[in-house]
Amino acid sequence: MKPVAITLGDPAGIGPEIIVKAFRDETELTRGCFVAGDVETLRQASQALAAPGQPALPVALIESPQQLDGVPPRCVPVLQATAPPQGVVVGRISAAAGRAAGDAVIWAARAALRGELAAIVTAPLHKEALHAAGFDFPGHTELLQAESAAHLGRPPSEVPVRMMLANNELRTVLVSIHLSLRQAIEAVNFDGVLQTLRITQQALGKALGRAPRIAVAGLNPHAGEGGLFGSEEREIIGPAIAAARAEGIDALGPYAPDTVFMRARTGEFDAVVAMYHDQGLIPVKYLGVEQGVNVTLGLPLVRTSPDHGTAFDIAGQGIADPASLLAAIRMARALCAPPQFRAA
Questions:
Q1: To 10 degrees, the CA torsion angle through 301, 337, 343, 199?
Q2: How many CB atoms are located within 10 Å of the residue 140 CB?
Q3: Residue 165: which residues within 8 A CB-CB, separation 6 or more?
Q4: Which of 11, 93, 293, 302 maximizes the CB count within 10 A of its CB?
Q5: Cα 324 to Cα 293: distance, rounded to the nearest angstrom
């Protein structure tokens, strides 16, 4: 398999710490992985995690992914993908940190689009820091969409993407991502719901090796209760489901949002399409962020990410849990594996 790049994330957050812990604790899982980021940031994180009287986990500079074979076990290989950030203070938002995080993602995305990587796993970045650095994107998803569109020579609108959050119990795919609640409700339209179902069908079909069974959540309480609590289910969501089914997509609903996620968790469905960000992500995160993985569907590359943010409140304390990052690496490897080796 080609290498997997793990991007630095915001150097003021917990990204560098959980990356070092991942290479320290899971040598077999991280074999074939390297960090796209900043060598000195990773060395500082490694030194901070070293037990008293014990050496820090070595951090090795590589010039290209092809040099991975020469890196010894229990060592963090880092490719310098950004100018060394200056003046970064752990736990604080800064343009310098946002620039380093954004640069690492762009380097990894372009390498993956050139076919040099199997996948990218993105450590958490801070949206405000990213914006302060001059990146005009709300987050990873939109940045990766723009890079993919540029690579394909298309406008971003012609490279539709969706966020899926998944753990061992539940998968949810969102019709809209980073919008205000008012804008998200307005974004529930026939084309958006149908497009989400198409993207979910294609991506999960590849991952599972079979056609997925997709539940669709309603927008309103009780899925509108026959129009008593809203008409979107009858006028928009239901017709989109019917159109998807006419295309051979196994989509069902719309179902009441307060029960459909429980039904999917018991195995009745392979995924739930949710109408907006919090509707879909709260159920998955409630089950535990330590195993949650963010997957961007619709990109011409594999991208996964931990289910948590930069956690500035605990950054630099050595207590951050790398479990979600490790789950994201496992997911990335599974998505890159031949279908006969993928778990359902």
A1: 20
A2: 26
A3: 171, 172, 174, 280, 281, 284, 285, 292, 293, 294, 295, 307
A4: 11
A5: 7
90: Cβ contacts below 8 Å, ≥ 6 apart? 12, 315, 316
Sign of CA dihedral 254, 222, 286, 137: positive
pLDDT of amino acid 341: 41
**Residue 90 Cα distances to 12, 44, 87, 175, angstroms:** 4, 11, 10, 34
pLDDT band at 288 (very low <50, low <70, confident <90, very high): confident
Helix, strand, coil percentages in the chain from 3-state DSSP, rounded to 5: 45, 15, 40
The confidence band for 344, taking pLDDT boundaries of 50, 70 and 90, is very low
Per-residue pLDDT tens over the stretch 44-58: 999 999 989 889 999
Q: Quick one: how far is CA 120 from the chain centroid?
A: 9
Question: Residues 257, 276: contact at Cβ < 8 Å?
Answer: no
Cα–Cα distance measured from residue 315 to residue 13, given in angstroms and rounded to the nearest whole number: 5
CA distance 105 to 6: 9
Sheet strand arrangement including 251-255:
59-62, 76-80, 33-37, 4-7, 119-122, 303-306, 293-297, 162-166, 171-174, 271-274, 214-217, 251-255
Distance of alpha carbon 116 from the chain centroid: 20
Residues 247 and 258: their CA atoms lie apart, in Å, by 28
Q: Which helix (H) or strand (E) segment is 76 a member of?
A: strand 76-80
Mean pLDDT of 272-299: 90
CA distance 93 to 128: 7
**CB contact burial 229-247 (16+ within 10 A = b; e otherwise):** ebebbeebbbebbebbeee
How many residues does the structure list for the chain?
344
| Other Cβ atoms within 10 Å of 120 Cβ, number | 27
The tokens for 133 are 């650095």
Task: Identify any residues that bridge with 297 across adjacent strands, giving them in sequence order.
Answer: 162
Distance CA 51, CA 147 (A): 40
